[in-house]
DNA sequence: CGTGTTAAGATACAACATATCATTTTTGAA
DNA sequence: TTCAAAAATGATATGTTGTATCTTAACACG
């Protein structure tokens, strides 16, 4: 189905991979960025910028303002370390940074968990539809809201 | 490509069709609902609830509170008279009420215009991916952000 | 009529996001 | 090494989107 193998990272390994990717783009892996990445990666469901701000502030005993979190999340998204789930106004860490994909998010309306699937053939079709309408600089947003298996 | 013909409605004809559909579900076509529908249909791009509240308030010389607008928009979405564009936090009137489709929205990041495409084969594939993951009560969100032909 | 139901209004607040300017930290050249 | 420029973060304010709660108004029907 157009999928391929990924290197799924976890814990420190994931943070290391994220750091490597960010630095490869000439960006710095600062303490604040590391803390925000770790916190985001620690969530099992999409986290809002305010969720992250609160947790990071507590963890570091020092306030991190929401706007700083947004700045850093934007940087992460631009560098594929994280993705934004539009229908949830929230963010997820990318568990395989380095792989560029149009993701499909499946978001459970009951428990809030989001799983993420890659199906390149599907996303290519979406891109094709948009291209046929004359769109450029295409960024597909493919999400599914519903009730997940566990909540059924 | 899995599309089919639609009855595209305009102006009064569209409002009439919307009214018919809503009443078919046992809901009433009140003055407030009519005003909100007309205002929404008058927008050429996705309109926020606050946009609508402001215009309707002016048009009727009587304040309509945002929460009332949200209530009525929710009703419209539930009855397929309108759709929510998740990536824009905004709403569009459905120009062919009665047809049940999973829509694909193409939203221009420059001018804000949104065009809407139906491709049942594509949306069926999205549903299939979610079903394969054990999801139920599926509601696909398929949108594309980009730059439209006119803005290129 | 009066009474129960549905629709809409008033108000307050919660949640999400950005704009602006100040401060701190880092960097790199003199 | 020190100083100036640039980059990162912080403080603060405000704008935007969305919901909760309670009240009032409109309506339907015995």
Give a brief rundown of this model.
The first copy, chain A, is of the alpha+beta class and 152 residues long. The first copy, chain A, contains five helices and five strands.
Describe this structure in words.
Chain A has two domains: 83 residues, Arc Repressor Mutant, subunit A; 44 residues, Dna Ligase, domain 1. The N terminus of chain A is likely disordered. In chain A, the strands form two sheets. Chain A has a three-stranded mixed beta sheet with strand order 4-3-5, covered by helices on one side. In chain A, helix 1 crosses helix 2. With 152 residues, chain A is of the alpha+beta class. Chain A starts with 10 loop residues before the first helix and ends in a 5-residue tail after the last strand. Strand 5 of chain A pairs antiparallel with strand 5 of chain B. Chain A binds a DNA duplex (30 and 30 nucleotides) through helix 4.
Which features would summarize this protein structure in a list?
DNA-binding; two-stranded antiparallel ribbon; three-stranded mixed β-sheet; 152 residues; Arc Repressor Mutant, subunit A; Dna Ligase, domain 1; homodimer; alpha+beta; 42% helix
Secondary structure: elements and pairs:
Two copies of one chain form a homodimer.
Chain A lengths: L10 H14 L6 H12 L6 H12 L5 H13 L3 E4 L4 E4 L9 E6 L5 E5 L1 H13 L3 E12 L5
Parallel strand pairs in A: 3-5
Antiparallel strand pairs in A: 1-2, 3-4
Helix pairs in contact in A: 1-2, 2-3, 3-4
The first copy, chain A, binds a DNA duplex (30 and 30 nucleotides) through helix 4.
